[in-house]
Amino acid sequence: MTQIIKSIFGRKSRFIALFIEIVIVTVIGWIIIEPVAINTTTALIPAGYDYDRLVMLTFDYLSSESPEYDKSAKGMDAKELFGNLLRMIRERQGVEKATYSFYQSFEMNGRSSSGIVADSTYTEKGIEDIGFSMTCIEYMPNTDFFSTFGIKDVNGNAFQEPEMNESTYIISQCVAKALFPDSTAIGKEVYPPSEWRPYAMTAVGVVADMPYNKGDGRIGTYYIARDWEGWTRPAGIMMRLGEGVNPRAFIDKLTADLSQYRSGNMYLTHPVYMSDQRDEIFAPKQRELTQKWMIVGFFLINVLLGVAGTFYVQCKTRIPDAGVMRAFGAPRRRVIWSIVGEALVTTILGWLIGSIIYLIYLKYQGFPMETDAYPIIKHLRPVWHDTKLGRYSIIGGIILLLLLVTSALGAWLPARKVGRVPIVDSLRDE
């Protein structure tokens, strides 16, 4: 360490230039990496259901002007039409289970949410805003919806579908904890009666927490049963493939056979692998996240080139020092690591000053905390970026680690050249 300190003070001008560069990159790193780390964490939240075994089909109808239109089927009951297609799909080889899918369901374009307020006891725990919203998921009861998706209960077991009616909900775990912190949610009132709904909505089941779409983060959800009397109709059919069935090969073969799946003037179309559907819905956020990671990579490359360039420029001046060390018995490895150590010390000092500068700036900004969840949800499902200590210590550690790795590599490349110079040549000018 003494040798490193002497070397730094012996080359003050180059040390200062590299130090300033590290400080600037650290500040920029804080600005860039904080949202990148948070958004990446949000994107990596598990789906909670078996999307890698699901294939979705969409319902469509023949136009009355189509030559294949069947006029005799015009008055057929909708339940019968839908039911025929679901039965046909369930009988197809490779399909383990199948259910109806709705526009308000996982990774679909439709969406609606309901506002609700958590139990008032949470205000005593320091949570001032206890309001939140929960996203609606529609399904057809008694059609294997939960087993088809592979949805779990709060203990990680397969969820057993309860009996449902127009006044019942199935809610996710965080919703249950928010509304009923000290008791079970089963049989409890989620919403009281109102002017437009004369009956209360009651919870009859609790499932594990799951994001509605990839990248949604931590949200509350509730499941509502639909019937054939309402205005809502299924959007299509969701199939759960059997173990070992290749989804891509299954879709290719199904696409070739789609003409067989017709009921009256209704037919099935557009088979989509659920994994692809998740990626498509997440695509806009993925592009934004990729751009931010590219910017992070750009600045890290600048650090690498800056450190490597600084030490390459100093190679000739360091050769005599290396010769002296080698002459006194220092192994080549020690010569190399003395140069790398100098780069690491410079990086740590630059990171420390840059971090202090940025945290002072954050203090004057009131420490804005970008998040993916309501305060009550954060309390019930905490993650590392919910608190200032957790957020800034982990992000600071990530920045330091990236800078250290980059700086070490940037210094090691020229240090190898210095360490390989023969002792006689290195001492020639001494």
The coarse silhouette is globular
Structural class: alpha+beta
Order of SSEs: HHEHEEEHEHEEEEHEEHHHHHH
Radius of gyration, in angstroms, nearest whole number = 31 Å
Q: What share of the residues lie within helices?
A: 40-55%
What is the strand content? Answer: 15-25%
Instruction: Give the neighbour order of strands across the main sheet.
Output: 3-4-8-5-7-6
* Intertermini distance: 24 Å
Biggest sheet, open or closed, and with what strands and sense?
Answer: 6 strands, mixed
Q: What's the count of strands?
A: 11
What is the residue-mean pLDDT, rounded to a whole number? Answer: 85
> Spans of 5+ residues with little confidence (pLDDT < 50)?
none
Count of separate DSSP helical elements: 12
Q: Key features?
A:
about 425 residues; alpha+beta; six-stranded mixed β-sheet; five-stranded antiparallel β-sheet; 11 strands; globular
